Amino acid sequence: MGERAGMAFLREWPGKGFAARIMRGRSMTAEQRLLVRIDQVEAINRLRPVAILAHLLGALIALDALVARPGGAAIAAAWFAVMLAALIFDILSGPPLAGHRPARDEVAAQYWRNIATCFLFGAVWGSLPLIFYASADESVRHVLTVLMTAYLASSAFILAALPLAVFAFSLPIAIMMVVTFMRAGVADHAFELQLIGVYALAFPIALRQHAGAFAERVVAMAQVREQTQLIALLLHDFEANSSDWHWQCDSQLRLVRVSDSLVRQSGLSPAALDRLRLDRVLTTGASPEERAGDRREEVLRHLLRGEAFRDCSVLLMIDGHERWWSITGTPTYDRDGVFAGFRGIGRDIGAQKTKERELEYLAHHDSLTGVGNRARFNQELLRARGLAEAASRRFALVLFDLDDFKAINDTAGHSVGDTVLQTTTRRIAGFLPRDSVLARIGGDEFAAIVAIKDDMDTVRLREIVEKVVHEVAQPVETPAGTFKVGVSAGVAVLPDDGRDPEQLMQLADIALYDAKSRGKEQVRLASSEAGAAFARRKQLELDLWKAVSRGEIFIEFQPVVSARSGRPILFEALARWRHPVYGLVEPGDFVALAEQTGSIDEIGAWVLAEACGRATAWPQAVRVAVNISPRQLENGDLPQRVRGVLEATGLAPERLEIEVTESAYRGGVDLVARVVAQLHALGVTVAMDDFGTGYSSLSSLREVPFDKIKIDQSLVGQGAADKRTVSVLRSIVTIGRTLGMQVTAEGVETAEHEAFLRGIGVDSLQGFYFGRPMPGDAVAAFLAAQAGPNDAPASSRTSAA
Question: What is the Cα–Cα distance from 225 to 389, expressed in whole angstroms?
Answer without folding.
Answer: 65
